[in-house]
Amino acid sequence: MAREECKALLDALNKATACYHHLVLTVGGSADSQNLREELQKTRQKAQELAVATRTQLTAALRDRGLGAEERAEFERLWVAFSGCLDLLEADMRRALALGTAFPLHAPRRPLVRTGVAGDSAGVAARALSVRSLRHEAEGNFDVDDLRQLEREILQVSEMIQEMEMKVNVPRWTVQARQTAGAELLSSASWERRPGGRK
């Protein structure tokens, strides 16, 4: 079913975007390395692939005039979640560009930002990308080439966001949430009140 496929794609995009956000925060810190930059590139590319697939599915669904009101409302909620995810991805790509430019790999190996984080971040990227091992590509100008590519990809994501707004008119403020604000917090509190739960 189209709705289930859209939900699965959006869930995968959300995970890839969250992973990318986590990796971007380590650029320029003590865990920064060529491996990290390669993981950033692969995670970013995976997120963009998922974004294109999600956009295609959601656009087709929302342009279908035969959708019922309830089904349309569900696709509109997915659309709003998707556009929010793209906004976050674009913001993190811009942050990665700024940090990558400020902290080039060919600079002296003393980290300029002391984040307190040390060690390898490959586990996070591998989970998001479903990759068992990331191959180290030893290129002298990897970060310079990647930053140029990143600039082009930021423009592509910006264009995708603008194109989405032109193709499907779903103003974010018109979409109704299915739960009240903080409902997930209330569900754990209600568990505590049940018989056998903690008081």
Keywords summarizing the entry:
6 helices, 0% strand, mainly alpha
Measured distance between first and last alpha carbons: 42 Å
Shape: elongated
Hey, roughly how much beta strand do the residues contain? under 5%
Structural class: mainly alpha
- Got a strand count? 0
The pLDDT mean sits at: 78
Unreliable stretches, pLDDT < 50, 5 or more residues?
Answer: 131-139
Helix content: 55-70%
CA-based gyration radius: 20 Å
Discrete helix count: 6
User: Oligomeric form of this entry?
Assistant: single chain
Query: How is the biggest beta sheet arranged?
Result: none
Write the element-wise H/E pattern from the N-terminal end onward.
HHHHHH
Would you write up a description of this structure?
The chain is mainly alpha-helical and 199 residues long. Helices cover 66% and strands 0% of the residues. It is built from 6 helices and no strands. The radius of gyration is 20 Å and the shape is elongated. The termini are far apart. Mean pLDDT is 78; it is low at 131-139.
Fold topology:
Layout: H1 2-24, H2 34-62, H3 69-102, H4 122-129, H5 142-167, H6 183-193
Helix pairs in contact: 1-2, 1-3, 1-4, 2-3, 2-4, 2-5, 3-5
Overview in brief:
The chain is an all-alpha fold and 199 residues long.
